[in-house]
Structure formats: structure tokens, C-alpha cells
Design brief:
The chain is of the alpha+beta class. It has 3 domains: about 10-150, no CATH class; about 170-230, no CATH class; about 230-284, no CATH class. About 25% of the residues lie in helices and about 5% in strands.
């Protein structure tokens, strides 16, 4: 426990994050809605990416002495990210800690999440916020996230990444987006990637030939064929039409948002989705 202290100047650019991370937040929440108010949004243009423990608050609670890598990891950690309307994010919560602001809904979840984030990054906390969090948590029978009256199972693992990657594959997911890119495959020395490799189901095989990342490999390796237009698709491909977060895959959250779930093997979007049980149906 200690008062806040700004041991170095705060610059938001030191805690930058890609806008594309909003897609991962939506996936973790299983929809475009805000835990703070329960409001469901029509689209991503109505939302802000919200840091539960504000970046400037974390800076003054110890990250002012942290490395650039730790600051970047904090700024992109799903454990500390959610959605809020601009009115709530910019006009109400801002950089306040729990003493200065609490959400209308999910206060128990919010308080517990603040504690987890502070513990994870070794952040200090002042006496007033301790008292506020203690008061909130003392009244809680559960700290689970709820939407209306229904509990929500968030898809976040302990390191802040999206759930779903097996441990042997997660070690190659350097950017923590739940997929394996060709850059990551080359960095870890296993490109090109064949269909029998454990990373293959988590990569995009655009031409469907069973080999990923052919281009840019060592000399003698064949070059990747141009991406084929999906059978029966005209105009934009299924990927262009449904891949809202532009990560080269189509998630169940995106499929539901576009009204195409459940997705069966014959659907143009199927090839860009992960059918883990290989039953020909995704997002049942």
C-alpha cells in the first residue's frame, strides 16, 4: 500500500495498443456490449476500448519505473480491457480509480478485476482505494461477470490472452491474438507449416492446399498460389464480409453478429473458422 507517485513523465504513447484488439475484447465478452452498463451496441463505432485500471493510474502506481515491454503488455492485456460507451469512458470514468468511479453494473466483477490487475503487475494502491474495494467486495456473493441476470463466461486465460490455444501452440503466439501468423512461424523456425503440424489449425491456409507460409521460405520452396475466390461467392469474399477485426479468421462472435451462426461446412465462411471437433458445424 502506498500513495501514487509519478516517478517519470506519463505519455499515452508509451502505453499504445492496436485498434484491432477491440475484436479480441468482443470475442472475450461474446458480443458488443459493456459490463459497466449492460448496454448492447449496434456496432464497434459506438464503443471505446476501456482500460479497467487506467493507463495513467497504473503509471503512477509503479509502471513509471517499468520497461517499455511491460508497459506495452499492460496496455494490451485482455485481463484489463473491456468495452464502454465514449460517454462513460471519456466523460465519467476517465483516469479515475475505484475511489473516484464505480460502474452502475457488475461492481463486484469490476472490483475483483482491479485487484487481479494490480496484483499481476505489482501495482501499488492507496488507502482510499483499498477501503473502497473492501467495501464493495464485502457485499459480494459472487464476482462473476453477468449480462442481465445471466453469468458470462469470459474467454480469458491467466496471462490475459484469448482462451482456446493448446499449450504447445500458445508458446508460438507471440502477439497473443489467439492465432499463429507466418511471421511467428518463421521466428520460431517451423515455416512452411504442413497440415499435420499442431500450429496449422490456428493459421490461415488461404489457398487450401495444406501448406501455410510457403512464400518467403528457403530457396527451392514453391511459392504460394494466389488466394482463390470462394465457390459460389461473388463480390467480396466471406473473409472480407465477416472478418470485422481483420485478423484473417472469422470468429463465432462475428458469425453471430452477421446472423450466419451456426456455420456448416458448406458455408463460404466455414474455411476461415476453427472447427475444433471437426464435426462440420462451428458455433453450435
Amino acid at each position: 500500500m502506498a500513495p501514487e507517485s509519478r516517478c517519470s513523465p506519463y505519455q499515452a504513447s508509451d502505453y499504445s495498443y492496436p485498434q484491432s484488439i477491440e475484436g479480441r475484447i468482443i470475442e472475450s465478452l461474446d458480443g458488443i456490449w459493456s459490463p459497466y452498463t449492460g448496454r448492447t451496441f449496434a456496432n464497434r463505432r459506438e464503443t471505446d476500448i476501456e482500460h479497467i485500471v487506467a493507463r495513467s493510474e497504473a503509471h503512477d502506481s509503479g509502471l513509471c519505473a517499468a520497461s517499455a515491454e511491460v508497459r506495452r503488455r499492460f496496455a494490451t492485456d485482455l485481463l484489463n480491457l473491456t468495452l464502454a460507451s465514449p460517454r462513460v469512458n471519456r466523460g465519467q470514468k476517465g483516469a479515475h480509480d475505484a475511489t473516484g468511479w464505480l460502474p452502475d453494473r457488475n461492481q463486484c466483477w469490476f472490483a475483483a478485476r482491479v485487484v487481479r490487475v494490480r496484483q499481476k503487475y505489482g501495482l501499488t494502491i492507496d488507502r482510499r482505494e483499498v477501503d473502497t474495494l473492501d467495501r464493495v467486495l464485502a457485499s459480494c456473493s459472487s464476482t462473476a461477470l453477468t449480462r442481465g441476470v445471466a453469468p458470462v463466461e469470459e474467454r480469458i486465460v491467466s496471462d490475459g490472452r484469448s482462451a482456446g490455444l493448446p499449450e504447445e501452440v500458445a508458446r508460438w503466439d507471440d502477439n497473443g491474438n489467439g492465432r499463429i501468423t507466418c511471421a511467428e512461424a518463421r521466428t520460431h523456425g517451423f515455416a512452411p507449416v504442413g497440415r499435420d503440424h499442431p500450429a496449422y489449425p490456428y493459421m490461415r491456409d488461404g489457398d487450401g492446399d495444406g501448406i501455410v507460409c510457403e512464400a518467403g521460405g528457403s530457396s527451392g520452396r514453391r511459392q504460394r498460389a494466389p488466394t482463390r475466390q470462394l465457390p459460389g461467392a461473388s463480390g467480396p469474399t466471406a473473409l472480407q464480409r465477416y472478418d470485422d477485426n481483420s485478423n484473417g479468421r472469422i470468429t463465432c462472435a462475428e458469425a453471430r453478429r452477421h446472423g450466419i451462426a451456426p456455420v456448416r461446412r458448406g458455408h463460404p465462411a466455414y474455411r476461415y473458422m476453427n472447427d475444433r471437433d471437426n464435426d462440420g458445424i462451428v458455433c453450435e
